[in-house]
Design goal:
Elements: H1 23-37, E1 40-44, E2 51-55, E3 68-72, E4 79-84, E5 91-96, E6 104-107, E7 114-116, E8 121-126, E9 135-137, E10 149-150, E11 153-154, E12 206-210, E13 216-222, H2 223-227, H3 236-244, E14 253-255, E15 261-265, E16 271-273, E17 278-282, E18 288-293, E19 298-300, H4 322-328, E20 332-335, E21 342-345, H5 348-354, E22 359-364, E23 368-373, H6 378-397
Helix pairs in contact: 4-6
Length: 398
Amino acid sequence: MASTFDNNLRLREMGTGDESGTWGNRTNENLELIGEALGYGTEAITTNADVHTTTVSNGATAPGRAMYLKYTGTLDSACTITLAPNTISKLWFIENATGGAQNIIISQGSGANVTIPNGKTKLVFTDGAGSGAAVTDGLDKIDLGSNSTLNGGGFSDVTASSTTTFTNKTFDANGTGNSISNIENADISASAAIAFSKMENLTINRALISDSNGDVVVSNVLADEINYLDGASSNIQTQINAKLNSALPNDAWLSSADGRNRFYFATNGNTITKFDTTWRVDNNSNTTMLTCDTSGNFTATGNVGAYSDMALKEDIYQIENALEKVNKLRGVHFTRKSNNSKEIGVVANEVEKVVPELVDEHEDKELGTVKTMKYANTVGLLIEAVKDLSKQIEELKK
């Protein structure tokens, strides 16, 4: 009768008449495997494997037979480990010593399984129920006796439903990650005097806000910025709007973001504009209508007109001796002192002596009172001068 391996340790069970003359060797073999089952074993999982099978071999040494089984290797995701064959009913201490901070999931069949976090060890047992076999956490329902201790200290008086007073105890003082959860406001005495500096993520000189989860977190707002609001007596936006709608100040330059002075509203009613290269007026289509350069040259893309309607005038009479007056004027070439440009025109001081109506005065900041010329108004004088000249020509023809 042939040997079988149907037991939970997969030891050789010799039948009648089997292994004649080698029973001593087979017995020693089984004793060694029993010792292996009571010992420590380690098994490496293929790198980044998602599934792995640990098989307890029939009558041969195997790491999976050990009572304490340590898994090594590197994972990039959780790995499901199947304990085979699925007919073994056995107890294991299983350690997840893999790299990669991933869980291992211990399974045997389609039944329940047990997840072991990275770096942790669990006591599990299998029911060996075949294809539907399950793995169970052996400590899930353990009841520790009244004399049980933890690291040498008693904890038998603390239960999930008990009320226990902790005096001068430290929780997670060494930063191991242990903490107490589900503490409610009612559990904290009004006189607890928890230091504000103990709040998580507290940063010096930062304001605290409530995030989308209702947790208190540190914002990017500085404490000094909060202090700027001190003294605000009404809605800040309302105050800003009031400032924006208030009158602009007199006798002070309004500057642009680049630090240049742009506008000045003088108390006497004058409005002053400054520019570096060109003063320009554009329409809403971004077409330039008017420009003025730093030399005072004014250019319009259209006609420059002046009021000249009859309704605006009185004491109208024709210019007399126009040709005589023109003959007393002189056209000149000249160089403008401000920019050395070569130009032609007249001298206002000379024109004033002949036709004072063509000359005005202007107050210059540097030169004081200077004469200005109404060049457009010379058209009337020139029209009458041409008419006088035409009359003389007609008389000569006769």
